[in-house]
Structures are given as structure tokens and as C-alpha cells.
Design a protein that fits this description.
With about 375 residues, this protein is an alpha/beta fold. It is built from 17 helices and 10 strands. β6 and β7 form a beta hairpin. This is Lactosylceramide 4-alpha-galactosyltransferase.
Length: about 375
């Protein structure tokens, strides 16, 4: 039976090849005419045939969506067989019923960090049936040179990862934020990139629904069952680094309205955590935020997605035992790394630091790259 299947496949491939390279009837008559004239005309015939064959080969490969990688992807420099588990390699593709997972880069960022790569990799591994969509403003102008960076090659190994340009005007169209985006003065504000990111996430949740994550998360578990939810970071404040909502949810509509009506881009967090906190308090008629479900929206306890408080971010770089790590993360779905505070701190690779262990377990392909780079630096230093 197996030999019959292989013979059938080989036969189909041979027929496909014959169809691909068969000269069309429109070229047969000119061919006879050319051959009946001067010998040098044979050169012209060969040139025309080779051009036609190249054209068929090129479009035969790229016309099939299954043959394409995500936009702006390269054939990976890394070995995908070693980077991605076989269960992902053979995945039929994202499930239509699964929520999308969104990441957004609003800066003209052209060199993704290890943490950026780990965030996307860990989300792709824990959500194999979801589309993991990375929207990057730096790609909006067709800057395909970004694909030369190692992170793009590594992430192209994952069949569910898509790296797309971030078209801000199109994203905000049809929402209360459309007019705000067209006003030039907000570009002069000190936190405008963060405010722009705050705007993108609530509009994505409103328009498309799904899961939004900042690019300084390491995802430990599938987040699909955390629907219409956001996390408490502590100190009576909700944080929007993680959001999960159904499309067109009323809570997100209120967030968009508040974004415009109470806009103040000069105060750090006013359009982000403070906005979500004040809308949730109005939504639930609360004075103090606590872990609860109210009118279909859940405020998750800090340990779910913010197990390390921002005040204690240095703990990420402290050594912990495997038992301590398990105890710390038993109720955790994702770990926020607080990159704004931690990005200048050197992480020793390999080490028993909490963050190093998270890299090793939840984004092993990125961790391997980190180790290789660390070893190369050590060799050059000798």
C-alpha cells in the first residue's frame, strides 16, 4: 500500500512537472518559424524558453500560500528542526476558533531583543493553534532589510507566527481614536510611543478581540481560558500589558471613549494603567480594585500574569532553586519582566537566575541563541 501511495505521488509530481515545463501552444508556431530561418535565431528561442520556465517556477512556488512563510520571513538561519518541537512542525495551521495573540511594536524598532524573541516564541509554543501576530511599525514602509536579523529567522520556524506591518491609520479608522491619531501635537509629548502602544492595544481588542501581550512577557501556559480579563499589577492598579477580550466588547468601547475624552499624554500611565483602572471602577461601581468578576469582566489576581511586582523586578536576576521556581509560578500563566526597569541589567547565561530559567524552559530556541552569543563573546575576550 505504501509503495502504491508513493508511486501515485511520484506520478502526480511528474505530471505536474510536465505541465509546468510544457511549452504553451502560443509559443509553438513562433518556434517553427524561428527554426526555419537563420541559425542565430535559435539563441532567441532558447532565451524565450528559459525566461518562460523561470517565470513558471517562480510563480509556481509563491502562488501557493502553503509555500509561503510569514510576511518578511527568510529561510531561517537557525535549524528549525532543533528549534521547534515536531508537534508544531506538523501543525495543520491555526484554528479558526482560536483567539489571535497580538504583539505590537510602535517604535521604529529594527533589531528585536532576546526578550522580544522570547515573548513571541513562548506565546507560539503555548498557543500552537492560534495565530501569533506581531505588528511592527518599522515594517510599515516596506523595510524588508529587517528580515536579516536573527530573531526574524528564528521566529519564521514557527508556523503560527506572522510578522506584519503596523498600519496605524488603518488600525484606528472607524474608532473614536481616528481623529486623535491625525492630530500632530501628541507627537511632541514625552511618552508618545507608550501612549501610542496603549491606543493600539485597546483598538485591537475592540476590533478583533483575542489576546494582547507586551513584548516583555514570557508565556508559561495557554491563555485562551482567560477571556474578557485583565490583570491587577498591585497597588489598586490594573495593567494593560495583558488583555484578553471578545471583539466589540462594551468595556473596550468605554476604554476608547475614555482615551479621547480624558486624554492627557503628559502624565505617565494616564492613558494606560490609570485608564483601565478608572474605567473598571466605573464599570463595577468600585472604589478599590480587587480580584473579581464584574459584569462579565475579570480582574485577575497579581500572581496570574504579574507574579513579580514591579518594585521587586530585581528578583528576576536572583538565583532560585527548581522547587522555588515551581512554587512561585504554580498559579501563573505568564511573567511580566518589566523591561522598562530591567533592560540595562546584565543576565548571566547560563545561570540559576529566575529569568534565565524562564528563558531556558519557555523559549529554548531563543535561549540557545543567547548561549551561543555569550560563548562567542567569551572566546573573543580571551
Amino acid at each position: 500500500m505504501w509503495e502504491q501511495i508513493m508511486m501515485a505521488v511520484s506520478g502526480e509530481q511528474a505530471l505536474a512537472g510536465e505541465r509546468m515545463f510544457r511549452m504553451p501552444s502560443c509559443l509553438l508556431k513562433p518556434t517553427r518559424v524561428v527554426l526555419s530561418h537563420k541559425p542565430w535565431a535559435l539563441f532567441i528561442l532558447i532565451f524565450v524558453f528559459m525566461s518562460f520556465a523561470y517565470h513558471k517556477l517562480y510563480w509556481g512556488i509563491w502562488a501557493d500560500p502553503k509555500g509561503r512563510g510569514p510576511p518578511y520571513s527568510l529561510f531561517p538561519e537557525t535549524s528549525c528542526a532543533h528549534s521547534v518541537p515536531s508537534s508544531l512542525n506538523i501543525a495543520a495551521g491555526p484554528s479558526p476558533s482560536a483567539q489571535n495573540v497580538f504583539f505590537v511594536e510602535t517604535a521604529e524598532q529594527t533589531t528585536p531583543s532576546y526578550l522580544f524573541s522570547c515573548s513571541v516564541e513562548s506565546a507560539a509554543r503555548t498557543h500552537p493553534t492560534s495565530r501569533v501576530v506581531v505588528l511592527m511599525k518599522g515594517l510599515a514602509n516596506g523595510n524588508t532589510s529587517l528580515t536579516k536579523h536573527w530573531a526574524f529567522s528564528l521566529l519564521s520556524c514557527f508556523p503560527n507566527v506572522e510578522i506584519q506591518p503596523l498600519d496605524l491609520k488603518e488600525l484606528f479608522s472607524g474608532t473614536p481614536l481616528a481623529q486623535w491619531y491625525l492630530q500632530p501635537q501628541w507627537h511632541q509629548e514625552p511618552h508618545f510611543l507608550h501612549v501610542l502602544s496603549d491606543a493600539c492595544r485597546i483598538v485591537l481588542m475592540w476590533k478583533f478581540g483575542g489576546i494582547y501581550l507586551d513584548t516583555d512577557f514570557i508565556v508559561l501556559k495557554n491563555l485562551q481560558n482567560l477571556t474578557n480579563a485583565l490583570g491587577i499589577q498591585g497597588d489598586d492598579v490594573l495593567n494593560g500589558a495583558f488583555l484578553s477580550f471578545k471583539p466589540k466588547h462594551e468595556f473596550m468601547k468605554l476604554c476608547m471613549q475614555d482615551f479621547v475624552q480624558n486624554y492627557n499624554g503628559w502624565v505617565w500611565g494616564h492613558q494606560g494603567p490609570e485608564l483601565l483602572t478608572r474605567v473598571f471602577k466605573k464599570w463595577c461601581s468600585l472604589r478599590t480594585i480587587k480580584s473579581m468578576s464584574c459584569k462579565g469582566v475579570r480582574a485577575l489576581a497579581p500572581e496570574v500574569v504579574y507574579p513579580i511586582p514591579w518594585q521587586d523586578w530585581k528578583k528576576l536576576f536572583e538565583a532560585v532553586s527548581a522547587l522555588e521556581l515551581h512554587s512561585l509560578l504554580k498559579n501563573t500563566y505568564a511573567v511580566h519582566v518589566w523591561n522598562k526597569l530591567s533592560h540595562e541589567t546584565k543576565l548571566e547565561i547560563p545561570s540559576q537566575a529566575l529569568l534565565a530559567q524562564l528563558y531556558s524552559q519557555f523559549c529554548p530556541a531563543t535561549y540557545t541563541k543567547m548561549k551561543q552569543d555569550s560563548e562567542a563573546l567569551s572566546r573573543r575576550a580571551v
